[in-house]
Amino acid sequence: MRPEAATLMLEVVGLECRRGDRRLFSGLGLTLEAGTLLHVRGRNGSGKTTLLRTLCGLFAPDAGEVRWRGESIRDLGDEYRRDLLYFGHLNGIKGELTGIENLAIAATLDGDRVATADIWTALERIGLAGFEDLPTRMLSQGQKKRVALARLMLSRAKLWVLDEPFTALDVDAVSLLQGLIAGHVAGGGLTVLTTHQEVPLTSGQVARLDLGS
Amino acid sequence: MARVFWCILIRDLTLAMRRRTDVLTTLFFFVIVVSLFPLGVGTERKILEILGPGVVWVAALLASMLALERLFAADYEDGTLEQMLLTAQPLSLLVLAKISAHWILTGLPLVLIAPLVGMQYHLTGTAIWVMMLALLLGTPILSLIGAIGAALTLGLRGGGILLSLLILPLYIPVLVYGAGAVEVSRIDLMDVQPYLMLLGAFFLIALILAPLASSAALRISLE
After folding, report:
1. Domains of chain A with bracketed CATH
2. What is the chain A residue with the closest CA to B80?
3. Cα separation, B164 vs B158, whole angstroms
4. B101-156 pLDDT, tens per residue?
5. CB–CB of B78 and A135 under 8 A?
6. Cα separations (Å) of A2 from A23, A52, B19?
């Protein structure tokens, strides 16, 4: 048995990504230890989303590799995905299903046995009390995003990769999300996020990465 | 494992029940295409008996084609497919669950309505039973093979036409043996067995290989 906290680490080695003919970044290297938040910054089109998708293994880099707990994520496969939670531009919720159903399915796919009561609590905490039973297509843009973000409360993933999590959220939701991220990082988790908004990220160690400079 | 399979199966069935038009379109398309032939060719009993099995199978291929495009597209558009790729569950199992739901919604109704369309072609009772059995074995193959094409053409512009060009040639063996089974049943019922056994073999091969191929294709398509 390896000590958990010591090996909980995300490494990026010599990463190079291209989109078409354009080289977004090359020779990118960084190390992220447990309890750290990485804020990826850069202009539109500088490759933030590509970097985040590469970290998740959705996009294959042209060179270099991503390592989790010292092993390449390509070799880890399912083992890596168990530790990972990705929140992308698309909410990843079904409009025809209710918030409860959406979250129950997400939890089952994550391999967690989450009690329905916990899902209700999570939706209530994220400010959707009274909307749990509505098909999510009836909800506003911000409310849909809240349903998707409720997954953060139910997940036990160690690594959160959040692409623009603050857009379309109101002030209350933003501060709630900040609290969630801070709690996750304080609890020894890792977070990688992008945001254009000036959101104070006061939690623990904050690393910054500027792309396209 | 089984829990995840059921979860996705029930999810897709629930989604279809809340958006019924997709299911009904396939079924009505099948019924209408099959019904057009007697209207065009005339009601000559001998001709219809010969045409029947082939027409029903061609209509079944086209109907299953029609629904294939939506197999992964809706999940692709709202990001749920992306989330499925990022779970620790084997993707081929999730894909198999989606294909099963797709077959229950688009293949099974064709099997059940077969007696009705068979009567339009003056097929005998035995021939209708053979046709239902052949469709029961054949339509899952259509869904399984089709899923590979649907995964490969995901997110492409004009993917629908490309999908038909990719998949229809692969459907040929199913068409030949499916229609053949009904054809020979008119001569001797014992001759049907090898046709159905071949369809069964195709089904088993597709059942094992198609989910693996589709999930590999999905990973490529989402890059």
Report:
1. 1-83+186-213 (3.40.50.300)
2. A92
3. 11
4. 999 999 999 999 999 888 888 888 888 999 999 999 999 999 999 999 999 998 88
5. no
6. 38, 27, 50
DSSP assignment of A14-45: EEEEEETTEEEEEEEEEEEETTEEEEEE--TT
Tokens 């009567």 map to which residue?
B119
- Please state the pTM of the whole predicted model: 0.90
**Would you say B43 and B123 are in contact if contact means Cβ atoms under 8 Å apart?**
no
In total, chain A counts a number of residues equal to 213
Q: What is the ipTM of this complex?
A: 0.86
Q: In what order do the strands lie in the sheet with A22-33?
A: A22-33, A9-19, A63-68, A71-72
CA distance B163 to A133: 37
- How close does chain A come to B97, measured CA to CA in Å? 13
Helix/strand number for chain A, H first, E second: 8, 9
Q: What are the tens digits of pLDDT across the range B33-61?
A: 999 988 888 888 888 888 888 999 999 99
How would DSSP label each residue in A139-171?
S-HHHHHHHHHHHHHH---SEEEEESTTTT--H
**Cα–Cα dist B157/B151, whole Å:** 14
Query: Smallest CA–CA separation between A81 and chain B, in Å?
Result: 5
Q: Flag if A95 and B85 touch (Cβ within 8 Å).
A: no
